[in-house]
Amino acid sequence: MTSSHSPDSNYGNQIPRRDLLKSAAAAGLFGGLISSRPDTASANIAPGTSKIWDENQKPGTTDWQLTYVHTGRGRRSTPLEGYCSRQSVRPGETIEIMLNAEADTEAVIDVYRMGYYAGAGGRKITRLGPFPVTPQTETEIGANRVRECHWQKATTLTIPDDWLSGVYLGKLMSNSHRYQSYIIFIVRDDRRADLLFQCSDNTWCAYNKWPDEYSLYDSDPPHHSLNGTTRVSFDRPYAKYPQVVDQALSVGSGEFLLWEFPLAYWLEQHGYDVSYISNVDLHTDPEGLKRGKLFLSVGHDEYWSIEMYNSMKQAIENGLNVAFLSGNSICFVAPLVESSDGRPNRIFHRAGRYGGLLEAESFMGPFDMEGPNENLIIGARTINPFNGSGDWIASKADHWLFEGTDMKNGDGIPGLVGWEFHGDPAKIPGLEIVAEGTTINGGNNEAHWMSTIYPGPKGNLVFNASTIYWSMGLSRPPGFVPPFAHYGRPHGPDKRVQTITANFLKKCGVIPPA
User: Fold this and answer.
1) Fewest Cβ atoms closer than 10 Å to its Cβ: which of 211, 306, 420, 434?
2) Are residues 127 and 210 in the same domain?
3) What does pLDDT average to over the chain?
4) Residue 52 domain flag
5) CATH code of the domain covering residue 434
């Protein structure tokens, strides 16, 4: 491994990085965004009171963004692409990085930690390489349509002890062309933290079509797209995302930049004490939930194993606070199994529906099993029609969640609900419906969504925002492209969404340091 903090212009036509933290121009650039400060202003945070706050005082850069991409057949980055051997890694552990190119080349990987960093969104951590990269053997189609790569590794990275938990992007660049793409991995830790931010990387993998039509939603006749036979593997690059948002400049990063980054950006802006985990960490490490006050399900969190479900249900019974700032969550049972070379938790399939199939979902399957109803954890569940768009409308505006928003019953936040959501609330003692309304999909079919909150047995709380788009009401980071689905879209950062979120965190004992 070699490192450098001065990008070489031979790789990807990179411009010199700017110190945005010290730049008055940057202050002007990002100052035009709607403020996303909760009640406790981040300007009052003292250094040394939060690892996240201290990290975000370090110089950031917008150079983490891809500038030039080429997504050819199947939305893949054929000039240069890669993947990692693990979804999540601790400091002191190793992760292997595999690269492929359509012609012999030399490549480097600039590694960035994603956060706020004075509005820049990322900090360059190191440079890996240069490495020789050669065309890899075409990946064969395995049983049940699985595409599992067996590429040569370009490097093995040992995570240094001082790398803070977070989502890390590796920006791939070549010396023979300008096209770029990402690899992505999560650095987790075992420290006590106020917030546990779970990335929805099982769902990233499920929707990944690499190399062309090989997502969990692709099948061979006579199977329907929502079948129980197709398998998907983490051992392949992330292709360009195929639904409701056209963001070619996210290729290789799964769905993190699309649905999850606005929440991470906002949390780190205010110095919230947050530690990041992968879906696989919930699957393998239920004891790890005990180190947090509040667990966050973020964005599009559709695929959970039974182990994940059971661990979360037990954690809520033990007193963990949970916020489902997500939609379509815990919808399908996804058993994680080992790769063909024996690495655990690298392949899964859609084994069944949590709560069983609704009458309108009878076309799905065939499935191996049925999971317990997800509304027993979330408070509500995915309903049918399961996609559409609508306003997020307050129905219990006198609830403490709405303090400081000036919202009244019937007031709506435009376009915030989509493209999937929750309804059909569980009969949990004390459960309250705080917002509800109607979505309409492309066929003008209506669904009734509900946002809920209920008390756990130890004075803890579980909030269900009931929309994949919730984080988009919190911030708009650099490079963010809003989605458009079913003739609707969210408007972006909104004081009311920011205040509701801060109110819930505060009620759970989570406030930014002051």
Assistant:
1) 306
2) no
3) 91
4) no
5) 3.40.50.880
